[in-house]
Write a structure and sequence with these properties.
The protein has 134 residues and is an all-alpha fold. It is built from five helices and no strands. It has helices at 9-22, 26-40, 46-58, 63-106, 110-133. The longest helix is centred in the middle third of the chain and has 44 residues, at 63-106.
């Protein structure tokens, strides 16, 4: 992997956290990673990103986490390979814990049921958008 512009470790953390915060998993995160790493920040070329994505897809587990691990390792060796994917999954972990707690505490309230049903529609819209971007 040829690095076009090497980010600082802090900048990489911020970007990984941002993608983890606003991305919705799966193809949505992959499209956002491509947009950030290739087009906006120019950290790697599109070909190199697609090669790394292909490698990440054959590994077991979540492709986005494997891709973050790969990029973190390439840029910052073992430290980046461990810390960058952890930073990436931190927002989703926190959200899932909070939403699980809210569902079990307030799931019987009608407007809460409607809210969680609306989240399902949001997921479909995000997947359509991500498919379009890739």
């Amino acid at each position: 992997m040829m690095i076009m512009k090497k980010p600082s470790l802090l900048e990489f953390f911020k970007t990984a956290f941002y993608i983890g915060l606003i991305g919705y998993g799966g193809a949505a995160n992959l499209a956002l990673m491509k947009k950030k790493f290739v087009h906006e920040k120019e950290w790697i070329s599109e070909k190199e990103f697609m090669d790394a994505l292909s490698l990440s897809q054959i590994l077991p587990g979540a492709t986005g986490v494997a891709l973050m691990c790969y990029m973190g390792f390439k840029l910052y060796r073992a430290r980046g390979g461990i810390l960058i994917p952890l930073t990436f999954i931190l927002p989703a972990t926190i959200f899932m814990l909070v939403l699980s707690w809210a569902y079990f505490q307030f799931g019987s309230i009608s407007w809460v049921q409607s809210l969680f049903a609306g989240l399902g529609a949001l997921v479909v819209a995000l997947l359509v958008n991500a498919t379009w971007m890739l």
